[in-house]
Fold these 4 entries.
Entry 1:
Amino acid sequence: MSETASDGDKTDGIIEQTKGDIGQGNVSDIPDALRQRLSDAGLTVTEKEFDELLARLG
């Protein structure tokens, strides 16, 4: 049986990965990196949702 991650699981994973990269100094533009990772995962969010995700990083 194959399991597919939900959008919430994908978003949580992106947030955790981005937090780790920020902590290691691997991200110079946090909003841009977050937008790119969401796009790469095929996730679309509203500006309000994006702002909420961005707040989770800080």
Note: The mean pLDDT is 92.
Entry 2:
Amino acid sequence: MPISGLLITLEQPGNIREISAAILEICDAEIGDLEERWLPIAVDTSDSRTARDLHDQLLAIPGVGYIDVVSVAFEGDSPAAEGGSPLSKATRS
């Protein structure tokens, strides 16, 4: 289940309420504090395809100019979730 950290660049910061409402209509997102024209959000999706589709839906919201993918974590699917990465085990000698 990918958890994505996204940074949304707004065309005009004055319409933050409408954009936040539109985001929450599309998905169950954690919305951070607006900083000038940048709005950070975190979203949890069921798979990579759903994450890409969500990205397209968010980009289609009027007033959204651009979306940067800041981070993606695969909770429960990563080697780190099972006790560490293979690289960290190999370098412990």
Note: Residues 2-90 form a domain with the Alpha-Beta Plaits fold (CATH 3.30.70.920).
Entry 3:
Amino acid sequence: MPEDNGARAERIREAIVSEEYGLALRLWEAWVCELRATPVAEARAGEFGEAQALIEWSRGVLAGARARRRGSMAAARAAGAYAGAGQRRASVIRTCG
């Protein structure tokens, strides 16, 4: 018996919240393949509604995660730039030859 769409959406949400993005992507792709294989006449509006709700929820969550990651990267770059402040760097003499 196929997995309930609500349970499937919850598993994807849990993977995203725990930052297991690869797992979330695999679960999502499997669900999409199943939805595509369902004849339109047999598809229930609820099936697509669950998918739409998941898309809307994940869009905001993933945008926040991306912003936090960008902030962390910027902070790491700044710390790296100042880590060597005050230390003299060796000069490199370039020669042609």
Note: The chain has one domain: 5-78.
Entry 4:
Amino acid sequence: MAGGGSVSESGSAPVETNTKERWARHWDALASDLRAWVELKITLVEINLWERFKWELFTRGLPGLLLAAAALFLLVGAALGLGQVLGHPAWGFAAISGILGAVAGLLHRYRVSRSRRPSRRPWEKP
């Protein structure tokens, strides 16, 4: 009979003859269960990451994309309108580009760095 046991007198279940074999089967079953548990845990983490990614995409990415598209259409409209006033659409685009460049330059010049720390902490004496 497979498993190293002999058949009991009733013929229903094998009788354990070797304790090492029994322990080996138990440890194999435990290792198999542990392996399955780890795989399920990894799958759960993957699902959680995917759900978090989808949530971030739809709560931040999509509104940001729509806002960027709205800003683009607003700037194109402003450039075309200004170009009509100045006599040619190219002048409008040049003017809007110059304004955006000046704003970017000012923001770059007067930006506050997040990495800068105050010279002293509030609780320290001057």
Note: The first helix runs from residue 19 to 86.
